[in-house]
Every structure is written in C-alpha cells, then in structure tokens.
Amino acid sequence: MAPHRLRKKPPSPDATATPAPAVASYPLLSLPPEVVNEILTRLSLRDAVRTSALSRAWRRRWESLPSLDIDIGYGKQALWTVDCVLSRCSGRVRRFHTCLDELSARRLDDWLLVLSRRGGVEDLDLRPDQPYKFLSLHSTIFSWRRLISIDLFACHIPPLPQDFVGFPDLKVLSLGKVKLQRNGEYQLQEIIETSPLLEKLTLSELYIGEDGDDFIEWEIKAPNLRYITICSNIDYGWNFAELPCLHSAVIDLWEYVGHRDFAKFLAGLVQARKLNLCMYYAPANAALPKVNGIKILETLPCTFQNLKLLKLFMHFCELAPIFSLFCFLKSAPNLVKLKIKILKMTGINWLPNEMSFMKLMLSKARLLHTLSISHAYDCSVSHVGPLHELVTYGRASAQAQILFQDCVLLVIYTIPSRKIKVTTTRPDDTIEQNTMGISDLGPELLDLILARLPLRDAARASVLSVAWCRSWRHLSDLNFTSPCAAVCDREAIDGVLLHHAGPVRSVR
Questions:
Q1: Of the chain's two ends, which shows fewer C-beta atoms within 10 Å, N or C?
Q2: Residue 194: phi, psi to the nearest 5?
Q3: Where do the coiled-coil regions begin and end (predicted)?
C-alpha cells in the first residue's frame, strides 16, 4: 500500500494580504496637514486640546495650529488656561473672550502684550467676574489693526497713543460701564471716525472724566453704521452727524438732553427705519416756543421718510411731551406699525390733555385691549364723571377694557357691545358684585391681574374658589421676587418651579 501523502493546506488569505498601513486605524492622519488644521481650528479650545489623547502623534498636534480661539466664561479659571495656551501654542489668536477674576486681572497686561507680538486678535471681549472691579487695559490694544469686534465691560480705557491710526476692519463696537479719561468724548469720536466699516455701535452707561467737567460738543460720524444703542444717565453732548445707512436706533437719554438743540439731536436719526426713544421728560431747550410757560417742540427740520416702526416711552404729566409726540408722528409720514395693546397711565389728575389723549387712543387704537388708569396721590377730582365719559366714548377696539385703581378702589369697566359692566372691590370689604364677578373676566385679563401681584399673593389666590385653585400655575410669565432681607425658602422655590408651567420673567 502506498504511503499516505499529507495534503498541503491552502494559503490563508491573511498570509498573502499586504500589511495594512498604520494610518488605516487613524484616518485623520491621511488627510493633508492644512485640512487637519482647518478641522481643529473649528473646534473649541477644550476639544482641540483633548485631541492629544488620540495617539502619540496627536499629543502636541494642537500646539502647532496656525490660529485658535480662547473663550473662557464666568466662573472658570482663566489664569491657568490662558498662561498654558499662550506658552505652548505659538499661533495667532483670532478670538479672545475672557471673564477675569481678580488673580487673572493682574496678568491681563502681560497677555495683551503677548497677543500684540502675534499681531493682535480679530474679536476681543473682556469683562470682570462678579462682583466686578474695573479692569485696566494696556494701550497696546490700539495697535491691533485686525480687530473686527470689540466688546468691553467695566474697563478703564487708556488714552489714545500718538501713532493711533484707527481700526480699518472694525464692524462692532460695544462699550458698557467703561471709564474714559477727561475729554474722553474726543477719544471716542476719533475711534468711531477711524473705523470706516463700523456697522453696530453700543454705548451703555459710560463714565467720562469727572463730575463737573466742562460740557463738550462732539459728533458720532459713521457712514456705514446700521445699528446704534445709547443708554446714559448723563448728557455727554451726544450728537449725530449724517448716518446714511442707519437702520435701527435705541436712544435712552431724552430726559438728560435738555440744554441743547433738541431738534438737531433728532435730525441725526432721520434715516432710521426702526426707532426706540425714551422721552420721560420734556426738552428744556430755551430756544423752544412756550405755551403757558411750558417749552414745546412744534416742528422738526427733517422728515423721517424711512421710519416704519416706532416705540416711545414717555409720560403725560406735562403738555410738552404730548406735543413732542404729535410733532414726531407728523414727521413720520410712512409709519406703518404703531401697535398699542396695553396702555397704562399712572398719576393722572383728569386734566383736559390727559382726557383728550385717552379718548384719542380709545377711538384710534384698534388693537387696544386694556387701558389702565390710576390716580395721582394728591388728586382732588372725583373719578366718577371722567370714567363715565371714557366708558361711553366711542372706541375702535371691541375688546377694550378700562381698569381704574386708586389706594382703596379697583373698578373694572368692560365695554363690549357698549354694555357697561362694573366690578368694585374694596380691600377691607367683601366683594360687591354689581353685574359680573372677577371669575367672569377673560383669561388674558385675569393673567394680567395675577402677573401684577407679588408671587406670594398670586399663589394665595388659590383659596378664592375651586376654579382659582390652580390659576397661578398657568400664568404666561412669572416674577420670582423676594425682599433682600428675606431668608431663601428652599421648599417654596422647589414648589413654584415644580408647579408653574410658564416661563419665569425675573428672579431676584
């Protein structure tokens, strides 16, 4: 018998295959370096550093990035992070957003000098941590010509250097609670003038010089400015040159612009499409005509042809702001949106001008839902006659309701289909129901009443009846406010947040 012959095993597929390259397990390594850099620069700083854990080849990969962003929010340790990143990564920093605690603030000048040697940044946002102390900035930031956005809060702005040439690429400038040196108005004017691409300007609660400094006339000149917001409790001589591209303006300083050409001040905003103006007090310009000793703004030297949306915050204690309002409306022929849903007038004395304005609103405001009226504390005129006159006056809105309240009386007038219904409530008496009860009011009006109550009283309304047992839980918004001296009740807070389904408007 022939000897048994052993069969050879067929070669294994793995034995003949070409060994896979090492990069197969790390596909990112096969990409060109410029593509990898582009990917890493789109990551947050934290995630870019965490790529060090991918492999030995990636351990220091982030340190060679040509550019990166530093963004450190409130409550985070900026000192160690910024020191580590700036010492290990030699690339330029595009965005430097940092909230600085007291220790980090001491290193700020060193960091700004390091950034200057790398050509500056494009986006700068600096602010102190809470409770804040003002930060002192190094003047080297004025040499950063690549800046596109500046957002500074609670900072000391140093004087401009002699060789300052401006920010040619700056588009956004936001200054909040910053301090400038004496005659800082001129410094601010030069910064704005030398930023030809500036589109958005926000100046809020600035501090310029010292109290009692001489008044300075200066102008905001920005040919490409589209959005401007100015909020200030001090008149720093605000004036506007021609702003041809202006789209939206928010101006909250009317009560302080009192001793200059008020009409000229308004004329600088003539190109605006949207305008928010606070005019709590009448302009005190001596050149304005007077009616019974009150200075009146009768005409404007311009017409707001582009104005489409207007929001005004004002009072009617004097005749001057009312005439100023009508003067302004006459100068805006193309105004298409003037919506009034809730009109609240406090401290009235039933003067003829107040009555005329309320009648005007009732007869013209088609969306008016509520007219809320309250007496002045020293008003000696009875409310009965004027209220009856208002209720029987023609109105444009079928849903209009009149709410009148003084220290002891709440009267709610509803006037659908000209049927007058009155509910009278005295704090020390039981509810006297004439033709309707408070539960018969519309849900929107009930929400309005509850929303004006303190949180404790709104919740206590649950005991009124079964229907009111859960009414406060469905308010459209809620004010969660406690007195400063009150002790925080954890169970009360948990209960409110657990049962209230709507948004919370404020927490104090």
A1: N
A2: -90, 20
A3: none
